[in-house]
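for the writeup, i need someone to sanity check this before i put it in the appendix. the sequnce is what the collaborator sent (i think, or maybe the updated version? ugh). structure was predicted straight from it, no edits. if anything looks off just tell me and ill rerun, i have time this weekend
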Amino acid sequence: MTYHGLTRAKSTVAALLCAAFLGLAACGPSESNFPGQPTGQGGPNNPTGKERESVFGEDGLKLFGGGAEENLGGGGIGVNSFLWRASLDTISFMPLASADPFGGVIITDWYQDPKAAGERFKVTVYILDKRLRADGVKVAVFRQNKAENGEWVDAPVANSTGPQIENAILVRARQLRINTIEAQEQK
């Protein structure tokens, strides 16, 4: 190997080692939680890092039941199964565009009520916790009206619409949990 080729090989190895080091350093803990929110204050939507866990939970991915212990509401998915099923039940009249049980996100496609021509809605449900809690679900509602030229234009949604859907989901989740507990007690 010539001197020029050896120098080029050393430079390549040094660049690869530097890239690997930077890649591993990026995996370490960070002071900020999310881009644009470097406050370090915790909350259900802004974890401080102490409550972080794997996407698949503490024990890893469990499919088809997994371990011997039963975790009421866990169900092998990344979020509370009662909130998940209640969310799907509550928005079942709308067509689904996407549903991610590990990330806890349900996105509907646009829904147009036959009684309200010229208006359509889209809903995104975020399940934020593995526990059945009132702050464990967040709903975003989007609305569009049909303009005179036939195009859909974004329109405001009443502030109470999202919380009303959240409350309906929570009521259904509580019903599902009570039904499950009663069924287990009868065994």
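The longest strand covers residues 137-146. The chain has a mean pLDDT of 78.
thx in advance!!
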